[in-house]
Amino acid sequence: MNTVELFSGAGGLGMGLSLSGFKPKAVVEWDKWACDTVRQNQERGFPYVADWNVYEGDVRQWVGEFCSNPAANAIDLVAGGPPCQPFSMGGKHAAFADSRDMFPVSVDVVRRLRPRAFIFENVKGLTRAAFHNYYHYILLQLEFPELVRKVDQSWREHLDSLQRHKSSNRETAELRYNVIPTLVNAANFGVPQKRERVFIVGFRSDLDVQWRFPWETHSQSALMFDQWVTGEYWDRHEISRKQRPSMPATLVERIDRMRGLAIAPTQRPWRTVRDALVGLPDPESHPRLAAEFHNHRFQAGAKIYPGHTGSALDLPAKTLKAGDHGVPGGENMLVRLDGSVRYFSIRESARLQTFPDGYVFHGSWTESMRQLGNAVPVLLAQTVAASVAEKLLENSSRTQSSQRRLVA
Fold it and tell me: Residue 209: its pLDDT value, please?
């Protein structure tokens, strides 16, 4: 199945697509550092990006060139993570008025390529009350991509026309998608990071695909059970009883109820920072051992201040973030057991985003951490992409069976 990926960044979403059987016909990204990361891994022979055709530049220029290519007529999936700054908590909250809002461009690509499905990812902030109307506008544009905004029409006027069209229930032959938006926490899918993101998935309506977001596989309750009821978490990490931290007072009542029920949760435990960093030496105290791993060097300067207190070792990490100029102050830190803090190394951050150890990041610590803060966790991307691939393959199989029956 053929795909194009927009705003590909360092390759987290694209790698998940490749692992799910999609073949990229184009990978588009304007940021030089992120493109260099992908190209460097291609030069090193990293398998999941080896056949990517990287286009470094503006998506708007790329799509015009690509549509003249015969490959544009056979795209099964359009995917991407449009820039999140217009909607992020730390951004300017300008939405449509922000020149970095690339959702209109994403809709235009869907309209031109008519893929069988699409996957778009963005920050939780997109669902905030302040963006309610604009979020609804994005979803309606993706549902009816051929109903293009007129030159003299504001986005609010266009929203009104889209709403009227949807409520009319007219049966037309126009391009239409069944759009399913979902807010998810990556930790609930095995990513060692509490990272809430919106996924907007759509299937072309003529395919008659019934899809839902994959079931969650991990939970906080299962982690609590593993740590404070059975103790298997500590045993797995060879932490003696004397070395184990005390149970937080806020959990005592809940853990007592778990013990009384004596029923283990059906889901797997959340993966923690400790789980993610197994086998990685501390880059500050063991720099020589750390040097054996790609991008695993100590970065000085971490400090705590109100609202920025770092990530506990025995919970999933807080959301890795990317500022306009690298790492926001006080973020992306590990809190040691003695209460001191240090920055996560690039390699540790890559593990928290579920990138393989063999995947290297190009550029300075600041540039690499910015790429990681913007990335889609590979495991989460693969989970979503695999579920979409399954439905597309089922549809292809039904279509082929119908054609064989007609021929017979």
Answer: 93
